[in-house]
Amino acid sequence: MSTAVVIRDPKAYVTPDVWEREVALLLRNPENTRELADAKFGQAIAYLVTCGENPDLLMGPSEQVDEAWHSFMLDSIPYHHFTSRHFGRYIHHVPELPGTTAGVQCVSDDKAKQDGHDRKSGGPLVLEQTIKAIKAAGFEIDADSVESKPRRTVNAKGETTWLNWTQYADHGPNESVLGPVAGRRVLELGSGSGGNLAHLVTLGATGQGVDIAPARETVARERWGNLPGLEFRTAEATAFLKETDETFDVVLSIFGAVWFVDPDTLLPLIRSRMAPGGILAFSHLPPGSQGPKPAKAGLRHDRTPDEWARILTGHGFSDVCVSLIDPPEGRYAGTMLVCALAA
Ligand SMILES: C[S@@+](CC[C@H](N)C(=O)[O-])C[C@H]1O[C@@H](n2cnc3c(N)ncnc32)[C@H](O)[C@@H]1O
């Protein structure tokens, strides 16, 4: 005898108006298509319903669900109605402070101080357990919007390591923008999971990756820890630059710290740790393509080519070169790539 499986529909938990509004808010991020925004919001509802119905279960969201949850929570009137109507209480969100114990996500008040990190991976608490719980609660899991895709072993050209300046796979110029890197000391500010820096090290550079998020260091070490001449460290970029006595020939930041920190603070610090003639290169979204800031994002410093030229030359850089990389067909936002030499 077979048992019918009842699939719950996230759309049943908010009114159509609220659904449309929350999807529209997610669409302020130019990287979200309508389909992706629907999927992210639906998965966030499935996550929150599972949290709400299992107050004792320790759960943590994927990055994509967290984006939709942030956006929903900041739209506080419908978020408050949603949590109080379905669960009779507020569902808290406990953000993580770098260097401190993370709070458990999405629990009742008395648990908000427990460690929210999986001790082994450093990632959000037991994503696997969370996915199991959401499935057990009767929701479908959208793999693209919830589970991190495994890293590709090769890119479209069949290379096992590569550098990508853009937000799209297999798109835009490669590391040649930096000139030859063999024998050069490279610093990446906001190194994420480390693939770009690892590629430069395979070409003969030595690399120091710095990222504010402890989980990024864990992932980068797991992936690239066996490469000699490559180190990763958890630190905020300005704090690292103030404290290090090293000098670097190449500094790069791909949608990284240069995008997130006030350039008048960060650039003098970068310049002070660069060898004369060294190259600084960074990428971010072109100005105007962000639309209103996505709820999750902090302030991001998109500047025009003229602004970058002025700011960089004012902080001891020369030969500023700004290029705009068009997006792939069918995508909206391009990428701005900025290079300059330490004068
Ligand atoms: C969009 S990710 C890009 C990661 C990587 N550069 C890549 O291309 O895959 C931005 C990274 O910058 C890091 N980040 C943001 N602000 C930072 C700061 N002030 N200092 C160090 N890292 C920072 C974040 O933790 C995140 O890993």
CATH class of the largest domain: Alpha Beta
- What percent of residues are in strands? 5-15%
The unreliable regions are 98-125, 291-297
Order of helices and strands: HHHHHHEHEHEHEHHEHEE
The total beta strand count reads 7
Instruction: Describe the sheet with the most strands.
Output: 7 strands, mixed
* Global morphology: elongated
Radius of gyration over all CA atoms, rounded:
22 Å
Explain what you see.
The protein is of the alpha/beta class and 343 residues long. It has 2 domains: 10-146, no CATH class; 175-342, Vaccinia Virus protein VP39 (Rossmann fold), CATH 3.40.50. The chain has 12 helices and 7 strands. Strands 3-2-1-4-5-7-6 form a 7-stranded mixed β-sheet, sandwiched between helices. The N and C termini lie far apart (77 Å). Bound molecules: S-adenosylmethionine.
Concise summary:
The chain is built from twelve helices and seven strands.
Keywords:
343 residues; alpha/beta; Rossmann fold; 2 domains; 7-stranded mixed sheet; binds S-adenosylmethionine
Question: Helices and strands in order, then pairings?
Answer:
Blueprint lengths: L15 H11 L7 H20 L9 H12 L1 H12 L39 H10 L6 H4 L38 E5 L5 H8 L3 E6 L2 H11 L5 E5 L2 H7 L4 E7 L2 H4 L2 H10 L1 E11 L20 H10 L2 E9 L9 E8 L1
Parallel strand pairs: 1-2, 1-4, 2-3, 4-5
Antiparallel strand pairs: 5-7, 6-7
Helix pairs in contact: 1-2, 2-3, 9-11
The site of S-adenosylmethionine has 18 residues, from β2 and α10.
